[in-house]
Amino acid sequence: MTGEQQRRLHEALLAAFPDAGSLRRMVRFGLDENLDAIADTSRLNDTVFELLRWAESRGKVAALIVAARNSNPDNPALRRAAEELQLAPDSSELESIVIRSVGFTSVEEWRARMSRCELTVCRVETPTGFGTGFLISPDVVMTNHHVVSDAVAGAYPSQDLVLRFDYKTDEGGKTVQAGQEHRLATDWLIGSSPDDELDYALLRVEGKPGEMPVAGQPGAAVRGWLTPQAHVFTKGEPLFIIQHPEAKPLMVSAGGFLNSKSSPQRIVHSVSTLGGSSGSPCFTSDWKLVALHNAGSANGNEATPFSAILPELLPAKSSGLIT
């Protein structure tokens, strides 16, 4: 890091952890290290300085930032530090696609909303391939039916399917978070729609990952979950997809709404996706969950709008299967 980058990261850590106790917990829970052994000083300003020196000397700056953001994901200073070191998608280019039909959002709120959304997204790992999924309830993941169709058909045990949250790398491709694994509950299939219809599946997860701390890190923020919304699309409006393309670490891509199809009900969009992106959440520019990406086509990529899916979720909600 340059001296200026060190200064900004130093200020970001002080802003995010204003007392020694919170900093000590983050270092212990996120890095499995003893802060007192790293920095033998009573002044917080000096402690943070020594922590940064220690992290840089051991090649752990990326791991330190990730651990800090897991503990305080909404902190704007930490977000900027992560973006500068390419540990989070930079929003500067994405903001340029805003069109007249789309309202404005403050930069800090936009970043905070994306941070909360990305925590809910997981890589779906099966014996036959990969996909993407996301939490819509503390213990319910949504993905495409075609991603898990072999499991639905009984082609392999449901316990062979893994939902991996928080899989991330730094700008050099080095894994800084291998991810938190979750398995399916015994009564795992809540509901689904075939590939040639709405192409979704609702999966019950063991435990409640949406109510657990990020990356399983004690003291970290709670993961949370997404709320699908019906939406009237405007041609050209920006759309964003958080995904695991080709089973790679978590990424975000931007594009726009192109048109709608009626049979099966789909929207056509220009957001870039690859194999492994099936089942990804599709967002508006202010991070409202409005569609479920499911496939590519000759004229663009396709997603199922939640205006079509939500009526089918009502019975599960009314019966308490989805909170």
Walk me through the structure.
It is built from nine helices and 15 strands. The model is unreliable at 89-98 (pLDDT under 50). The strands form three sheets. Strands 7-4-1-2-3-9-8 form a seven-stranded antiparallel sheet, with helices on both faces. The N and C termini lie far apart (45 Å). The chain is globular, with a radius of gyration of 20 Å. The chain is 30% helix and 27% strand.
- The strand line-up of the biggest sheet is 7-4-1-2-3-9-8
- Please report the total strand number as a whole number: 15
CATH class of the domain at 124-223: Mainly Beta
Largest sheet: 7 strands, antiparallel
* Shape estimate: globular
Q: State mean pLDDT (0 to 100 scale).
A: 88
CATH topology assignment of the domain at 124-223? Thrombin, subunit H
Helix content: 25-40%
Number of distinct helices = 9
Looking at CATH, the homologous superfamily of the domain at 124-223 is Trypsin-like serine proteases
Helix-strand pattern: HHHHHHHEEEHEEEEEEEEEEEEH
CATH architecture label of the domain at 124-223 = Beta Barrel
Outline the low-pLDDT stretches.
Answer: 89-98
Q: End-to-end distance, in Å?
A: 45 Å
Oligomeric state: single chain
Strand-residue fraction? 25-35%
Q: From the alpha-carbon coordinates, what is the Rg to the nearest angstrom?
A: 20 Å
Strand-pairing-aware structural class: alpha+beta
